[in-house]
Design brief:
- This protein is mainly α.
- It contains 15 helices and no strands.
- It is globular and about 65 Å long.
Length: 285
Amino acid sequence: MSALSPRRASVLREFFSGVGFLFRGFQIWITAPRLMLLGMIPAAIVGIAAIAVLVALIVNIEVIAVSITPFAREWGEVAQAATHFAAGLALIVASILVILNTYTTVTLMVGDSFYRLIATHVDATHGAPPEQQPQGFWRDLRRGIGEGLRVLIPTVGLAVLVFALGFIPIAGGVIAATAGALLGGWLLVVELSNIPFESRGFHLTARRRTLRASRARALGLGAATYVVFLIPFGAVLAMPAAVAGATLLTRSVLGEDARLNDLAATPDTAQEPPHERRDNKREGR
């Protein structure tokens, strides 16, 4: 077996580093259990509606699968059954992508104040949280709805792509599910990181650009969150941890923790004026 190339190894390391942010988010239950419980309230409220929609889809999936594959009506019984099964499976996988991302957007809007407290706690725990700039409620609400729609609209297009992948012979279901986790995970992490990025003055366009610069790390958190959200009631339990993990990811991609470590390692030098630091370097101090 050939060894991984340095580039591929680096990508995998970054990806699993992102996965680790979700597990670190769950650790916030130890330091702030009451805060995390508060974060479960909006997740549970919105989750009831999301589960109802998914259950209704699954109950009626056979009828829906037949209705969306009229081209198979003249085929043989075996070919019809296989087509209906593939269509039903692909539709469920694609619908899950839309439901999970809609659930995340709506939950963050409903529980905005709770999740801001969680993000602030994570920043305070890890040192030097950014100063919150006061902004008007209605302005924040309008921007939040607008950015939420800008994230959800591409979700529909990606869901159509995932649905189409489900028709690939034999491996279609696996390919569609994998694509759903990766594409849906990316959309999740863009939405989950809204609060910590916004508190630093980064809105949707800047947020996407920053996350793309650390795509593997961001995708690791997003894909891990997506998979955990698939577990029954997993989204309710994991939502506060996902927000905490997204805050940790934000600090990481913006280099905040690295800067704090540098300041802690060289406190005296950090306080020196620039011309004094240059003089010290010349003298070997």
